[in-house]
Amino acid sequence: MTLMKKTALIAGALLSLVGLLSGPRTAFAEENPSPEQVVVKTAPEPKEPQPWAALLRIGSGVDSNIDLSAVGSSASALGSVGMYGEYLVSPNLRISALGAFEKNLPFTVPGFTEGEIYVGYINTLSETYQLRVGNLVALTRERSVFADGTVLLDATTLQSIVKENLAVILARRSGVIDLEAGMQGNFEVHDGKIEESTAFGGDGILAVRYSLRNRMSLRLRYSYELSRTTGLSARNLAGGADSMSLPLIVGVHRARLSTRVRLADWARAFVRYDFVAATDDFSGFLNSREHVGFVGWIAESPRWTFEGEGEVARRFFTDRIPTIDNPNKDTVYTGTVRVDFWALAAKKLGFFALYRFDRASASPTGLLFVRHIALGGISMRIGATPQ
Q1: Is the pLDDT of residue 338 over 90?
Q2: What is the CATH number of the domain that holds 167?
Q3: The pTM is what?
């Protein structure tokens, strides 16, 4: 046997021994080759991210106050279905949708329904400028103790609100400070047992955003909306309805200061403050100043997701003559905490628990209602993780 043949046999035996010692090849090894494998074989191309995601929660629980009453509240069983989905049509076009449905027992009590569809488009015009177009269509159907700026004593009204907002924004990006300017068109329909109204309006928008090391961003936004509302009865400052129903012109100034903070790779927080000033062109019944504070956070791990948010809204009607059903101040508190545990099916199936708190009061009316909701159920997610 020649020296060359002996060398080939020895090399083949050594390669076979290395293969036996290294064990069977796995899917993980195929997608994550070792440095030695890379020398022999080119690493596979990374998988394309899935362009869609969906999240579904189905649960049941207890509602402590189905009547939204300050006294004599009655508890009820509650069923809930919630979903969220998004689809990346292209790198520049995204579609998202969400829906929520809650139903109390007995079934004669109206439930809560919410639905939204959003389409967003981004066109990078140059290294500096970007064009953003977004359209939101939303439906909300819920019971409320507020009706057309007044308070319903010992009663609630079922309100359906349909709205559409179309915004066009031109953004100038510099990496640290971004500037935005644009406009938004608004359409809104209120369908309630008390009155029905339709509003058309438009916003002018200016905003500046400051980013700090990809960990924090600070944004200041101002907008002015002018809307024309039809269908509402004209009211005097004491809350009395006039026999006429006039088109009402309302101007609204909005200033928003918000910040996003990445606390860690697995935790993010968002804080927002809004100041809103509204005036009407009739009696001043809707003239108001409003302060809204909001905080939200999310923490994630492969198996756990913790989410929470809270909001406080205080509104002052500056020109009203206050009575018990015509308040000149109202305050609303809301808060939600939710936990998901992804335990099954490759972390795509799990369980969730939710607690929600609502409280509303007015002056000089007093406490309007306090409500607690506790839910638990099943969570499912497919596709990429929703953002």
Answers
A1: yes
A2: 2.40.160
A3: 0.80
